[in-house]
Amino acid sequence: MESKSLEEALLQYKAYLDATRSPQAAANYLNQTKRALARYLLTSIDAPPSTKRKPTKAEEEQVE
């Protein structure tokens, strides 16, 4: 399976979660993944540094 972008990879991961987990569990796993990407991946490419606080809606939307 080849992903062409981070967005496509997240969509494929969401489809996998939807097929293998309950709706609530799938949503939780996807949200945790997006938070991890926002905190660690984006900071590694010179985005603003991570903090201990929960990401804002705007920060989460950057990942979507």
Polypeptide structure, described:
With 64 residues, this protein is an all-alpha fold. The chain is 69% helix and 0% strand. The model has no long low-confidence stretch (mean pLDDT 81).
Task: Provide a brief overview of the structure.
The chain is mainly alpha-helical. The protein has helices at 6-20, 23-44, 57-63.
Descriptors:
64 residues; 0% strand; mainly alpha
Please state the overall shape, judged from the principal axes of the Cα atoms. Answer: globular
The proportion of residues in beta strands is under 5%
Cα(first) to Cα(last) distance is: 21 Å
Radius of gyration: 13 Å
For the sheet with most strands, the description reads: none
This entry's quaternary arrangement is: single chain
Which ranges are low-confidence, i.e. pLDDT below 50, for 5 or more consecutive residues?
none
Q: Average pLDDT, to the nearest integer? A: 81
Order of helices and strands: HHH
Total DSSP helices: 3
Architecture blueprint of SSEs:
Elements: H1 6-20, H2 23-44, H3 57-63
Helix pairs in contact: 1-2, 2-3
